[in-house]
Amino acid sequence: MGLLSYIDTMEQKGPGLLARAEQYESAGVKTGNFYDWCKKNAFSHIALLQRNGDAYHITKSIGLDAESIALSYSSKDFWDGTLITNGDWNSYSQGTAESAAFNQFFSEEMLSIVAKLHFIKMDDSILMIIQEQDEEETNLPPSDSVKSEISHFLYMPENKARGDELEAAVKRGLTMSNANLYFLSVKNAVASAIKDVPFAENSARQKMTDIIYDHIARICKTIFQTPNCSELGKDGEIKIVFFAKDEVDEQLLQFHIVQTLTDMVGKEAAKGIVLLMAGVCPNVKGTLTFLQQG
Questions:
Q1: Which of 37, 167, 178, 179 has the highest CB neighbour count under 10 A?
Q2: What are phi and psi of 188, to 5 degrees?
Q3: Is 143 a residue whose pLDDT tops 60?
Q4: Are 233 and 223 in contact (CB under 8 A)?
Q5: Number of domains forming the structure of the chain
Q6: The domain that contains 140 carries what CATH number?
């Protein structure tokens, strides 16, 4: 039981970004992030799309799979011509002519659960909330409140003290055992999950691949909770630090990871997830170096 018990900006030019962040801090706005806000509002399937040149695409989401995240890469012209009401909620019931235009943005699995879609379009971002089949009517927050919250998330860093948090976690974990170091590769799994998604340019495919990596890294943080740690590395690699008094069953560990990530990449693509042992470290400096470098 020892193993199972421990598993449980696009930067803007000029001073605008820093100025906005300082305004929020000086005004005493609560620090928080998109995911905390979604949890508070009990949104289980939600996405934030941001403008990138002449395109929009998902940058943050909950409950969407990798294929749907990749399919979100779409033209600004589409959204300008489709969401008629700007700054307020636009709602569409699945199965109607109005909702059909949005089917292209979902995998077959995701589309099968959609009952309603709710959108709110802001200056350079779009919030999408999915109401599932057989789910109670979504309680939509007031549009002004949503715009204020989303603006806050876009201009405030999510976690300024991540380095301090990692150090504290590692110090705590080392009182239990040496640090077991792992590389988790999801590169092949993600490539398989979105192989059928058409992109006009390879740069767009790489952009969405990186965003999916970021989503998977966030999921891994829920698997490896403190004192365990995980950090996104390069090219679809996630670094994991795992503490356990008992000998680690690596097959069980990989099984748990694969099971958790299957909803994201799909059952077949999940076969490409690989966990590799990188070594064992008895000290804080070496463990943090592993997590934070390269």
A1: 179
A2: -65, -35
A3: yes
A4: no
A5: 2
A6: 3.30.450.40
